[in-house]
Amino acid sequence: MRIRRKPWARPELAAWPNCIDVPAEHRGKWDSLFEHEAPMMLELGCGKGGFISVLAAENPGTNFIAVDIKSEMLGLAKRNIEREYAERGRKTDNVLIFSQDIERIHEVFSPEDRFERIYINFCNPWPKTHDHKKRLTHDRQLMQYREFLRDGGEVRFKTDNDDLFLASKRYFTECGFRLDFVTEDLHSSGFEGNIETEHERMFDSQGAPIKFLVAVKLPNEQVKPHEIVNEL
Length: 232
Known about the structure:
Shape: globular
Strand order of the largest sheet: 3-2-1-4-5-7-6
Number of strands: 7
CATH topology: Rossmann fold
Structural class: alpha/beta
CATH architecture: 3-Layer(aba) Sandwich
Largest sheet: 7 strands, mixed
């Protein structure tokens, strides 16, 4: 998604304690940055923060981290988070954000950072074959996530793209995940607790069904050997 340059974004983020300037410094010890010990969840590619702001504000008993590569997006996410928390009369004590190229997410998270759940919402489908390795659900990425997602932890994935969804189902099963819930039309599936993203509302208004799945990480001993090129 293209977004206009926002000169205010970087200064605002730099002044906000919930935005982590050098995330790699906290690799393996993210839980220590939160005021309260609690399970951790992660959104990869948070965009404008419409999803994480609601999710985190509604769940004070869980700690959340949201990542995006663009400071302009994170600036909007910061404002959305502050607004959601203010409306509930809460302080932003269970949410952190930072900028990072998700293709190198292993640089900021380690096996000591045990996440309960990862959210991936409407990531770039990278339709050209030579770009498939850039997909956030590609084998190369999923093997990184396995390092810091606990056994039995979930990845929840939404997309409007048919080809990406079909390929992602294969990626997950190849990389040691069990598909516990799969639907081609989330809003008609009866799935409870869904929080809509900005993209989701747009696609829904256009009559495009939302594809959604919940993938559960299997322990390493239950994973069949699978040849994956390690390009970290």
